[in-house]
Amino acid sequence: MGRSTFSGPILSGSNRFGQQRDVGFTVLSQAITLDFSVSTAGATNYGGASGQFVSSISNTAFSANENATIFVPQSGITSANPTVSAPTADASGTNYRGAVFYLPINSSIQEVLIDNILQPTDGTHAVTGIQPYVSNNFATSTGVYATVGAITGSTVGRTAATFATSAQNIAALSTTADVQNIAWPNIVEPAFFSQVVVTLALTVASLTTVNAGKLNVTIRYTQPDATVGTVGVYPYGNLD
Q1: Is the pLDDT of residue 191 over 90?
Q2: pLDDT of 138-155, one tens digit each?
Q3: For residue 82, is it within any domain?
Q4: Are 53 and 138 in contact (CB under 8 A)?
Q5: What are the b/e assignments for 30-55, b being 16+ CB within 10 Å?
């Protein structure tokens, strides 16, 4: 049985009443597959383009991969249209491609996975290096959330992000409150998000523009309810 909720986190367990509740937060996930042989926005597994990352949700309807809007992080929730950020355009030797995820504010990132399914290539030069960056904006160096080791382009497999070891960075990773909340234009309901951008730097000498290859990016997170565990009488939290 599945359940959808758009007013708070999904909780699960077998005993939701009393002082010995075993209720926990359900882990949520989003995934985007980037197929660099697909060059049409709105097509299944569209891989993006020079200066253009992708999202699996458009601002009009649920759909296949669309061109993503990357917002410059702001200093708080705002109803004004935020400033847009653009990835660096393709240059000889380096292409930037990426996936943009919009999470509920105050989510807790649990895992970021990158699957190298098929080695990227421009038809002549096979990409030898893939360097991911996990941040709240387009990034060309270590992002604010997690560190991901370089991936050998020819190696098919899964790479998991490593959570930063400093207390400050662990705190930043375990709450996306510091990813600035954005208000999406033309959305009737309040649309405040946290933004997570996974930048993929694709490199090899003389690379022009990738036109083949496939990667999958998955992010797993929880959407906590701050009232759970803080109330000693029924209803014990928002979702009872």
Answers
A1: no
A2: 999 887 787 788 999 899
A3: yes
A4: yes
A5: bebbbbbebeebeeebbbbbeebbbb
pLDDT digits (tens, 9 = 90+) for 14-58: 876 766 777 777 888 899 999 999 999 989 999 999 999 999 864
Has residue 212 been placed in a domain?
yes
- Within 8 A by CB and 6+ apart from 232, the residues are 19
How many structural domains comprise the chain?
1
Distance of alpha carbon 90 from the chain centroid:
22
Residue 136: CB atoms within 10 Å: 21
- Cα atoms found within 13 Å of the Cα of residue 170, Cβ hemisphere only: 3
In a domain, 227, yes or no: no
Domain that holds residue 126: 29-221
Within a domain: 23: no
**Stronger pLDDT, 62 or 163, i.e. the higher one:** 163
Mean pLDDT of 190-194: 65
Residue whose structure tokens are 């893939």: 130
Identify the sign of the CA torsion 173, 176, 182, 188: positive
